[in-house]
Amino acid sequence: MIYITGDCHGNFERFDIENFPEQREMNRDDYVIICGDFGFWTPSKEREDTLNELDRRSFTTLFVDGNHEDFDELNSFPVTMWHGGKTHKVRSSVIHLMRGQVFRIAEKTFFTFGGAASHDIQGGIFEVKDADKCLKKLNISRKDIVTGDLAAYDEACRKLMPYRINHVSWWKEEVSSEAERNEAFCNLEAHNWKVDFAVTHDGPQSIISMYSLGKIRPDETRIFLQEMQEKLDYRYWFFGHHHDNKNVTAKDIMLYEQIIQIG
Known about the structure:
By secondary structure, the protein is of the alpha/beta class. Helices cover 24% and strands 22% of the residues.
C-alpha cells in the first residue's frame, strides 16, 4: 500500500492510530509519502524523539523536502541509492527522497522534486554572528543579529512582519540549484518522460495560477515545474506547500492534512 499526504511541519498526529487506522494492516514494505515541509529541523531532543517515534511505525515514511527544512543538517547525511534514486536515510524507515530523482516503488514510478521559495519573509532574512549558535539553534536575540541588519530587524519586529534568520529558520537551499534541475531533466529523459506519479512541494505555475485565480505570482520553482509538467506524461501530480486539500484538476492534486491511498 502507498499513501500520500501534505505538509507536516514536524507534527505527525495525523499518523496516530486513531487518525490513520489503516496502518494496522501495513508493514515496512508499505509507504506514506509526505509532500514537503516534513519538519526536519536542527538537532534537538524533540526532533530525535519524533524521528524515533516515526521509525517505530509499521510503515516506511518517505518525504520530499519543503522550504522549512534544516538543509545544513539534512545534506550532512550520506547519499544512498534506494529503489533507483538518491536518498538521505535519516532513520531506517524514514527516508528523504532527493530532488530530480525517479524511483520505482511497489511497481510504480515516482518523480520527486522538493523545495519552494518561502513566502513568509517580508521582514527580511538576517544573519547571526555566531555560527555555532546558528547551527545549534539556540535562542536568538537582538544581540545576535549582525550589526548592519539591526535597523531592518527592529523594524520587522515592530511591524510584526515575518522574518527569517539564515541557517536558523531559512536556508538558501530551499530553492533548487541548476545541478538539481539538470539532474531532473536527465533522469526524466532516461525514463522517456513518463512516470506514474510526480511528488513535489510546490506545484507547476499553471496549476497554482488556476488554484489561486492568478493571485499567486510566478517564481523560478513553479516555472521550472511548469516546464517539467509540459513534457511529462504522468497519471497524477501531488504537491503541498499551500496548506489546502484540493483537486485543482483531475490529475493535479494539492494536499495538506488529508491522507489518500494511491497504490
